[in-house]
Amino acid sequence: MATEAGSERTSLPSYALNGAAHDEQRAAPRPSQVGPLPDRIRHRFPIFERRLYINSCSQGALSDSVRASYEAYLRDWDEKGAPWEYWVERTEAARAAFAGLVNASPDEVAVTTSLSAGVSALASGLRFGRRSKVVLTDWEFPTVGQIWHAQEARGARVVHVPAADDGSIPFEHFERAIDDDTLLVSITHVCYRNGALVDVEKIVKLAHDRGALVLLDAYQSAGSMPLDVRALDVDFLGAGVLKYLLGSAGLAFLYAKRELVERVWPTATGWFADENIFAMDHTDYSPAPTASRFQSGTPPVPSIYAGIAGIQLMQEIGVAETREHVQELNSRLIEGLDELRATIVTPRRPKRRGALICVKSTEVETLVAALEREGIVTSSRDGNLRISAHAYNSTQDIDDLLAALARQRKLLA
Ligand SMILES: Cc1ncc(COP(=O)(O)O)c(C=O)c1O
After folding, report:
1. Which residue's alpha carbon is at the smallest distance from atom 13 of ligand 1?
2. Going by CA atoms, what residue is nearest to atom 12 of ligand 1?
3. Burial degree of 180 (CB within 10 A; 0-12, 13-18, 19+)
4. What is the DSSP letter of 256?
5. What pairing do the DSSP bridges indicate for beta strands 356-360 and 384-388?
6. Full-prediction pTM beyond 0.90?
7. How far is CA 73 from CA 16, 20, 45, 300, in A?
C-alpha cells in the first residue's frame, strides 16, 4: 500500500485538486452568523430531531457538514481513484486548522490517529537519564498513565500526584512531586471523570522553574474553550477531534514547542514522520525537523475530511462564545441539581470546571438507561452521571434533563 500510494502521488493530474476543492465548497454549508446560541446552529445537528443529546464529553453530535465531508471523501475516491496529492494536502489543511485553533504554527503540529499515538511517539523519543522522573496526576486518562508506565522498561520513574479526599488536586501536591529529577509533568486540562479544570499556567510555571517539561492532554477542553499554547506555555499538547471539535474517531494532533522538536528522537515512527516522505528511503531514519516527526504511517484520510469540517464548524460557531454559553447552561444545571439535593462531583467555581458536570448516582448504569428511555443521551464514569453540554444545547435541554432527573431522584446519591 505504501509504495502504491507513493507512486500515485507523483502521477496525479491537477484536476484532482480543483475538483476536490469544488466538492468541498458543496460539502460545507455555513452556519448563519447572527443570533444567540444554540438557535443559530442547532438545526445543523439532526440528532436533536429525535433525542436530547448532552454527551459531548464522549462524542460530539454529527453535523450536516461533517456528514457532507464523508460524502465528499467517498466521491473523491470514486471519481478520482487515488488522489493522494490532494489527500496529503488535506492532511496539511488539518494540521493548519488545529494549529490555528491553539495558536501554534503548523510546523509545531503532528497529525496523528489518536492522542495515544502522538504521546507514544513523544515518549519513545525521550531519554530517561539524569532526569528520569515523569510526574502525572490521578486525573489522567488511562492511555496517558499506561504510556508513561510503559516507559519504566526504558528507565523512567513514574510518580503520581494524588487527588485529595474531596477529589481536588491541591497545588502543594504538585510542589511535593516535581523536583530536579523530573523530566516531564503530564497533566490533563479537564478530567474526564469529574470535569475539574486544572490551573495549567500555575503548574507549568512550577515545572519550568524546576527544569521540567509539561505535556497537556487537552482532549476534554479542545473545542469547548479557547486554547492558546503560547499563553499556557506548555511544551507539548495532545488532543483529538472526536468530542467538542465535532469530528469523528481516527484523528488527533500533538503540538510540540518549536525549540523542543529536534531535541526529541522518536523511535515509534513511520514514513510520514520522515524529513522527505516522497524519498521512499528504507535505508535510514531521518525524522522531519518539524513536529511531523511524531507522525507514523498513512494518514487517516476519511477522519481528516471529517476533522477539518468539525474544526471549521466549531470556529464558525465560536469557541469563546461556546464556553460562555455552556458556563451559563451549567450554572442553571447546578442550581437545579442543588434543588434536587444531588451530589455534584465537579468543582463549583466556574473557573475550575470544563464543560462536563458529574453527579453522584446510586446506580449509574440504571440512571443512564432510564434517561436513554426518555430520549436523553448522557454517559457515566466511576459511579457518576456525566452531563456535557455544548454549543448546540439549550436552556430547555437543561430544564428537560432536570425534570427527568427529578423523576429518577432515587438514583441520585
Ligand atoms: C482526557 C482524554 N484523553 C485521551 C482520550 C483518548 O485518547 P485516544 O485518542 O488515544 O483514544 C480521551 C477520550 O475519551 C480523553 O477524554
Report:
1. 219
2. 219
3. exposed
4. E
5. antiparallel
6. yes
7. 12, 9, 20, 12
